[in-house]
Amino acid sequence: MKDITETARTQAEIIEAFKFRHACKVFDPERKIDDASFDTILEAARLSPTSFGHEPFKILMIQSQEKRELFREFSWGANGMMNGTSGQLGTASHFGIILAHTAETMTAGSDYLQNFYRTVKQLPDEVIEIFNGAYGKFQDSDHHIKTDREIADWSGKQAYIVLANMMTAGALLRIDSCPIEGFDMALTSEVLEEHFGVDPKLYKPAVMFAFGYRADEPQFDKTRRTMEETVSWF
Ligand SMILES: Cc1cc2nc3c(=O)[nH]c(=O)nc-3n(C[C@H](O)[C@H](O)[C@H](O)COP(=O)(O)O)c2cc1C
Q1: Could you tell me if the CB of 22 is within 6 A of ligand 1?
Q2: Which uninterrupted H or E stretch holds 88?
Q3: Does the beta carbon of 207 sit less than 6 angstroms from any atom of ligand 1?
Q4: Which of 40, 47, 157, 180 is the most buried (most CB within 10 A)?
Q5: What is the pLDDT of residue 201?
Q6: Ordered structural domains, the chain, with CATH
Q7: Reduced to 3 states, what is the DSSP secondary structure of residue 130?
Q8: How far apart are CA 186 and CA 66, in angstroms?
Q9: Along the chain (234 residues), what's the average pLDDT of each consecutive run of 10 residues?
Q10: How far apart (Å, rounded) are the C-alpha atoms in residues 85 and 181?
Q11: Residue 76: predicted pLDDT
């Protein structure tokens, strides 16, 4: 059990980390994140919660500058066009894309899910039947998630939780980051298929991310609505 002062210290550390984190536009290109720290960030991703525990995402790390450049033209949120630099694409120590699973794998009863329940979740057949029924109802009538687009968007929601945890883990280590959805979906999918062998029937891009160490302090102070505007208690 933590004593009261230790709890207060942890509370302060958490808020410090959240204040430290900002959407970093330009990283110091000379500073690389060490492997143990980035492995920790990836482990935070892997341990993240997902709906039904289906883990409907995959992380693609893009460390080759040549490969990063393939995204530059249509990734206005990461190419530095807003600040006249080479952007997160040109300066991040680590850059990646989280891919979202599509209907092919994430439709209730799919072969993929049967195998996933058996091999990853290690569920017995009778529990798999319960999962199939519950997830089928969730897709059919609870949330109406049926089309490929709806299922990929649902997978993408899980991807955003993953990314949030990665950014918080980074901030606790005083590593900077930026979430990035400033890119053209269709062109990103084309590049992923042509240059990374990503089958668009199986995966759609959800969100990009960059990690590294800030080149400069943030240009703007953090602004947020008040707690009263943000939260209602009943
Ligand atoms: C899902 C998501 C996508 C974002 N996309 C971009 C982006 O493409 N480029 C960028 O520079 N910032 C991007 N941002 C950063 C936001 O603009 C930023 O988080 C917001 O203005 C609050 O500022 P702060 O993160 O510095 O506190 C994105 C943020 C989120 C959560």
Answers
A1: yes
A2: helix 87-91
A3: yes
A4: 180
A5: 98
A6: 23-217 (3.40.109.10)
A7: helix
A8: 20
A9: 87 97 98 98 98 98 98 98 96 98 98 98 97 98 97 98 98 98 98 98 98 95 97 98
A10: 18
A11: 98
Does ligand 1 come within 6 angstroms of the Cβ of 92?
A: no
- Site to substitute for ligand 1 among 180, 188, 207, most atoms within 8 A of C-beta: 180
- Which of 126, 132, 140 lies closest to 111 in space, CA to CA? 132
How is residue 226 written in tokens?
A: 């008040």
Cβ–Cβ < 8 Å for 98, 159: yes
The verdict on the CB of residue 179 being under 6 Å from ligand 1 is yes
pLDDT score, position 211: 99
Task: Give me Rg for the CA atoms of the chain.
Answer: 20
pLDDT score of 193: 98
Q: How many residues does the chain have?
A: 234
C-alpha 13/C-alpha 8 separation (Å) is: 9
